[in-house]
Amino acid sequence: MITESAAAQWDLELDDLFLTIGHRFGRVELRRRMRDYVRGLLAPVARKNSWVRHEAPCDRVEVGDLHRRAVAAAG
């Protein structure tokens, strides 16, 4: 089991990582989505895949919108 101090250290290091690579995402919304996705992948859940993120109620509209944009861009 992980201790609270170790979890806090992980959290700080993740924040540093997000600051380091955040500039690669042009908009703040994309940075936040990337951060949430990475945290979701590192969360202690049995299923760790994109469907877990898709099943979250707050992401359903965003995922659908992204899919529509990708299909439109593909022509």
Give a brief description.
The protein has 75 residues and is mainly alpha-helical. The protein is built from 4 helices and no strands. It has helices at residues 4-21, 28-42, 50-55, 57-74.
Q: How much helix, percentage-wise, in residues?
A: over 70%
SSE series: HHHH
Q: Using the CA coordinates, give the radius of gyration.
A: 15 Å
- What is the count of DSSP helices, taking H or I runs of 4+ residues? 4
Percentage beta strand: under 5%
Form type: flat
- Average of the residue pLDDT scores: 76
**Record field, number of beta strands:** 0
Distance between the termini: 50 Å
Model regions low in confidence, pLDDT < 50 over at least 5 residues: none
Structural class: mainly alpha
Description:
The mean pLDDT is 76. The N and C termini lie far apart (50 Å). The longest helix is centred in the first third of the chain and has 18 residues, at 4-21. The protein is flat. Helix content is 76%, strand content 0%. It has helices at 4-21, 28-42, 50-55, 57-74. It is mainly alpha-helical.
What is this structure's SSE topology?
Elements (H helix, E strand, L loop, with lengths): L3 H18 L6 H15 L7 H6 L1 H18 L1
